[in-house]
Specification:
The chain has 93 residues and is of the alpha+beta class. It has five helices and two strands, in the order H-E-E-H-H-H-H. A two-stranded antiparallel sheet has the order 1-2.
């Protein structure tokens, strides 16, 4: 199994409306713990999401703020901070 970020997988399962209590790494597999009352259909859907999960696709879909730590640390004035915020939030004005 490819290395995955368990928090990302847990979020994907939760956003799908599945009753997931926790997602754990067990050797080379993922162990899902469901809230009481999870149906067989929900468990099957969750297992399918795990089987189809692609961490690389999740990473590529995450938005980057476009700022580097050096840029943030080099901001010395209010004008510098304003410029970074305008760039960060794509503000026009």
């Amino acid at each position: 199994m490819t290395k995955i970020v368990l928090a990302d997988l847990h979020e994907k399962l939760a956003l799908a409306g599945l009753p997931i209590l926790s997602v754990r790494r067990m050797a080379d597999d993922v162990d899902l713990v469901f809230f009481d009352g999870a149906t067989d259909e929900q468990i099957k859907a969750a297992n399918q999401i795990v089987a189809d999960y692609d961490q690389a696709a999740v990473e590529s879909s995450k938005e980057s703020d476009g700022l580097t730590l050096d840029e943030i640390n080099s901001a010395k004035t209010v004008a510098d901070l304003k410029a970074l915020m305008i760039r960060q939030y794509n503000l026009k004005g």
